[in-house]
Amino acid sequence: MVSSxxxxxxxxxxxxxxxxxxxxxxQSPKTWTWTKGVLPxxxxxxxxxxxxxxxxxxxxxxxxxxxxxxHVGPVxxxxxxxxxxxxxxxxxxxxxxxxxxxxxxxxxxxxxxxGIFIDAPGEVSVDxxxxxxxxIEIKVTNGGFYLALITGDTVKEIAAxxxxxxxxxxIPPKWxxxxxxxxxxxxxxxxxxxxxxxxREHDIPCDVxxxxxxxxxxxxxxxxxKERFPDMPKLSSDLKKDGLRLISILDPGVKAEDGxxxxxxxxxQGFFCKRADGKGDFIGAVWPGPSAFPDFFREDVRKWWGDLxxxxxxEGFAGFWNDMNEPSIFYTPDAFKEFAKTIHRFxxxxxxxEALANTLWDKGVVNKESYYDDFTxxxxxxxxxxxxxxxxxxxxxxxxxxxxxxxEDPTKRYFLLSRSSYPGMHRYAAIWTGDNHSxxxxxxxxxxxxxxxxxxxxxxxGADTGGFSGDCTxxxxxxxxxLSAFAPFFRNxxxxxxxxxxxxxxxxxxxxxxxxxIKMRYALMPYIYxxxxxxxxxxxxxxxxxxxxxxxxxxxxxxxQFLCGRSLLVAPVVKAAAHGRMVYLPSGSxxxxxxxxxxxxxxxxxxxxxxxxxxxxxxxxxxxxxxxLIPMTDPASHTGAESSTNFRLLAFTDSTAQCExxxxxxxxxxxxWESYPKVLCSVAKTxxxxxxxxxxxxxxPRPIFLELELWSSDGxxxxxxxxx
Length: 724
Ligand code: MIG
Hints:
By secondary structure, the chain is α+β, with helices and mostly antiparallel strands. Helices cover 22% and strands 28% of the residues.
């Protein structure tokens, strides 16, 4: 029997079997009024043996399928298959079916588009017209689930209703919009201090340094290695004076070692996941070696884990980075014993090394699927195999921390990053796109993922700039930094086995070009910060494929360029040795702009359509839409040093244009876009004369100095300086 309900107009939610509450919906479906429902035409549902369901939708010849959050491949998912089952996947190649996050929301793009969200925490597979081109088939492997069908006239309406149903995006403090530098790992105090001082010495704006697993003692979560970091509070407070904050990585695997307090405590309280065969706690090996995994599905366990973060805050960490929470499992003792029968070079009981981990990866021992049948969670008081709720593990781990950070000071925003994710988690944490490679193809993938993830509600996202595995080249670092300067999460991060790729790691020219892009990001901070928060609050993506705002672009689905906010079209150069690229501008008037360390300046009008645009190594093709006003400021060395009175505005309009510049403290939480303290700037051109106005909202008026560069679609340019 099908029943339906929904708190949102034009959204029908159907319930099948006995769904597990995942937290994806803002309001629990248990509180809704359910009535007998009928699936619409073009959608059919059949049960599968031994359990689960198959749901089919008809696809018209020209229909596209967009969404599905984190995946490898084009923004148009049609013609591909996907297996949404959270996986530690270190090689992102076209045949990869599962990634860290599982985001079962998609939109069939056509005249009357339809949004589909499957709320099921176990495996969901999607055959988007690959096997049979006229059908999209979604298979839900385990038990019950909710199916939400969203109708509307445009993809924009559907995406907004999906957000109304599942909640608006996480908004971090302002400093998280700055540049982040990371590496696996800055291993000791002097290496961290040296990164910090090089940032300032080389005049590179930066707000955050990430600390990867080597800061821990023997990879024991919630510990600090005192030899490498004798005085973390001093280190963090020294860096803070320079506007730099530290983030610490945390893994879910708790080293199973007697005497280690987190392990003993968790064990004594029965907080770890149990083996499915009833023989005690489940043990899987990760970086610390054999480890136990907290049962984050239990509220008491989440509370316990959430409180464990507090001492790390006392060490001075400003935010947290949850890794390995698919969860990744290198091996279990049983699987290792089986495997050990085939090789003899390792000591089964005592050996844990990188060489071993690599061999285990090669032999398929790492992340073996059967591990997820070997342990259970407590869901609503019942033991449920991990497989059935698998895609929620990382989200539950992240919820533990989010709840704790939010409870500590409900008035403040916090920074939290997670590798694995599920819908709903977009409300309380950021994600990055995981272990990419220093491959040119992954610059293209970076753009595709920014677009798909933003459409799926995950707004604060970004990729490892420069690439994680493999060796970055100077040219690639420049091009990637130019791209990421427009991504919400802007972090340079590299693997242990990769060459150094900090902005200064190569040569003077590379350093200068990276500096320019990073400074441009900081010059654009008033636009990026304000526009991001506006998008997040008003249920819109921040990074948008052109199809989102321009219906005519839906047929093409270009996914090598994007809109950053409402006004700015970015067409990054993603190929080696390129001196330009093709750019598509939808109909309308466009202003080609130049990026520099001072932000953007107008260059010339650019006709719509497809055009080859020259772009030397120092340039990224950038264009402004008619009707835009972009607020900028002088690039500061970190967000805390940014001016709140002096702005530069770049306008492109024939009549009027507005922008909003937030003037909040960068960390206070506001419940709506309207309530943020801000200044609304507007420019107007009447009878050929320009004027500018500023109006304050939620904050006392202050003198503001505006330097304006004003362009019209007849190609005229004027400048104006005003105190308002
Ligand atoms: O097995 O902590 O994706 O960003 O540097 C590798 C070490 C574990 C995977 C993360 C990566 C991080 C790395 N981690």
